[in-house]
């Protein structure tokens, strides 16, 4: 078992650079999720780890060994592809055992390992079928079986759940977590779905435009996003972000939005009067209609979207729309006025030019 | 794309490239050289050998006196001499009435056959694209000629066009004996064999046109003629052009039908360039003439193909 | 358009199509019918020559013709040359098809290499025939099956390259990537994944190549003498016997029947094959 280290890695396609000085260190046994919008370079990075793409500069090492120049088969990684890439001409058993046969493992050992993997994934009754006779979820599990049967140093997953329907996706998320808990193999998992990232990862790497925006545990990313991109990418619905500047009144610091609404700021905030900032708060971190609050903002409900016990309420601050995730109430219907104040402990302030957290 | 080792790339591609290079480009250059030379093939007798005459069991036959019967066999060797003569052969070929006639015949043959094949093929494709009974079966019968051995087809049509007692004798047309009719008979064979090919390609292309496109057009106009000229033909145009290219290149090679159906006759009425080149080389031993003559044809076909080069590059993107 | 009118139109179209189909099928039918006639009846048969109605069929011509050793030699030579050439073309051409589908070449780019392969089929073979004759004599492989196989392989190779190239292009590349991550070499991924998945296209390409090698007369007439193949076997005899329909019919049928069967087997791939991969069909 070994750590996976990525050092100053750059990638070009012809003249376009798609990855910029990526640095990551992944500890043995960790479950890392690479997340970002499409085209951010996450799949490219994964394929570079697998050896399917050249590395233009920098180093990828597994343990103490630099693996840049190794062919995919010499890297001791296994990969689950987005469309599963099951060999259509081979049975499920042959698919799972393919890598072992390639490595000339003895037949009896292959049979044993294939049987074990099938058992773990509940595929035992399907072993003699061909991939085309399987459902989407079953194919997905065969692809996983093919990866785990070899007991590699690193698992690589390339958006493995994106072809499944929503319900199956939740089930498979659990199954992948369970398997990871059981085999404790270092895992690099690529997805564009931040919920998948939040629910599965030990550590999330947010990529955007080929740059690593932030690395951290799901909680760190949620509580302390290091910039506006991470703030809006992680969490659903997205964090509200309002542009404006700092003003002082009666000895208190306020955030003044473009339409002159005033939002109270925590006293310890490290900011000076007149500074242009982006004021962020998550939809779920607000108080509604609390009598004691003098600093609350008056808003009018534009749309409400009940989600069960909660309700998503949309309103405008100036010309910016904000979203609030609040307990359902008959008072919050379109046209009604209400008072809202963001919770002081959960306010995020970003520099309006760089987008960096202050 | 997968990260591939450079050596692997070449390992996959090079054997085929080397094979084809060695066996086409090299002979072509040799042929080019030959076209500037006078080649003399001489069979030289290098010696005489006495060998025993064998009976049908493989034992030497003996005379009554017990001696072995022998026969004398001349040992021959083919010797080839090359003399550089510059453009002499080309001049001869260009000025040769026989070559001019062959070129003219080949040219007319290609134009008429390909034109008929394309038009008839389009018509048949249109017909078979309609709802008709037994389409699959008829389609299978239709395409049979494509793979039939061309040389054998020539003989087959020899029996069909036979003027005395063939099945078409009642028409009273001198299919093979009249120098005006014979060229058309050869074209008929080409048309018979290759119209099915054009038909098959066009049918595949027609079936590839999405139905809703045609339905959308029927909303605009009721005229079937208009739908054809404004929707279907423009969509088929790239494929028609490609089929023309392939057919022209292929029918310009004309040799097999002639060799079995008319042997270039009557007179030289159906002598194609390939047929003439073959005869000059192997019946009259004039390699220089044959090389020069075939090179001229190669150049003409190459110029024609080059006209389509941009389109071909798009096709194989 | 009401339904009656529709089915009436369908019937009219069907009759026209049937008529044309019959015209195109007639030559093959006539030859086949001729081959079943008693030699002296060849010229006297009426109608379109339907066995049992217009004449009493016999297999005598077939058994007679097939009993000659020349027929066996010709059949054997033609089959042997066609089979070996096809196999060789596949062994050499398949990796090239794969290379053109999967790798990127810069100088010259893939499409130009592909077009260059295709040009073997487009340019007139007459230009290469004299040098082949001279070279084959020099190399001592004139009038040998070996020499013929080399030539045929060269000229049928474009088929496997362009037909299977397209099939490889249509295969998802992830399969080969998965194989490589799973421990296969490049060549392993090609042999264990790409090739097995392209078997139908390879088979169709083989049928087409076999037919072209089988049908060739031009190179055969230049490079073969005693080692004759079917076309030469047909020709031999016709010239000396004059017009004997039954005789020509049997011999042409012997040559043509196998290609006709292969044509039906390879139906689905003919368009792609004969348009050299340009129309998918």
Task: Describe the structure in your own words.
The complex is a heterotrimer of chains A (358), B (317) and C (281). Chain A is 24% helix and 35% strand. Chain A has 358 residues and is an alpha+beta fold. Chain A has two domains: 4-233, P-loop containing nucleotide triphosphate hydrolases (Rossmann fold), CATH 3.40.50.300; 241-351, Beta Barrel (OB fold (Dihydrolipoamide Acetyltransferase, E2P)). In chain A, strands 6-7-8-3-9-10 form a six-stranded mixed beta sheet, sandwiched between helices. In chain A, 39% of the residues are buried. The mean pLDDT of chain A is 89. The mean pLDDT of chain B is 86. Chain B is built from twelve helices and two strands, in the order H-E-E-H-H-H-H-H-H-H-H-H-H-H. Chain B has a two-stranded antiparallel ribbon. Chain B is extended, with a radius of gyration of 27 Å. Chain B has 317 residues and is mostly helical. Chain B has two domains: 6-84, no CATH class; 89-315, MetI-like fold (Orthogonal Bundle), CATH 1.10.3720.10. Chain C has 281 residues and is mostly helical. Chain C has two domains: 3-58, no CATH class; 63-274, MetI-like fold, CATH 1.10.3720.10. Chain C is 75% helix and 0% strand. Chain C has 13 helices and no strands. Chain C has helices at 3-35, 60-66, 69-102, 110-122, 126-139, 145-170, 174-181, 186-197, 199-215, 218-223, 230-241, 245-265, 267-274. In chain C, helix 6 packs across helix 13 (267-274). Chain C starts with a helix and ends in a 7-residue tail after the last helix. The mean pLDDT of chain C is 87. Classes of the chains: A alpha+beta (358), B mainly alpha (317), C mainly alpha (281). Chains in contact: A-B, A-C, B-C. Chains A and B meet through loops of A and loops of B.
Helical content class of chain B: 55-70%
- Using DSSP, what is the number of strands of chain B? 2
| Number of helical stretches of at least 4 residues of chain C | 13
Mean pLDDT of chain B: 86
User: Can you tell me the number of structural domains of chain C?
Assistant: 2
Outline of chain B: extended
Largest sheet of chain C: none
Q: How many discrete structural domains of chain B?
A: 2
Span between N and C termini of chain C? 31 Å
Low-confidence stretches of chain B: none
* Nearest-integer average pLDDT of chain C: 87
**CATH hierarchy, class of the largest domain in chain B:** Mainly Alpha
Order of helices and strands of chain C: HHHHHHHHHHHHH
Rg of chain C: 23 Å
Helix content of chain C: over 70%
Q: What's the CATH architecture of the largest domain in chain C?
A: Orthogonal Bundle
- Relative strand content of chain C: under 5%
**CATH fold group of the largest domain in chain C:** MetI-like fold
- Element order, helices and strands of chain B? HEEHHHHHHHHHHH
CATH superfamily of the largest domain in chain B: MetI-like
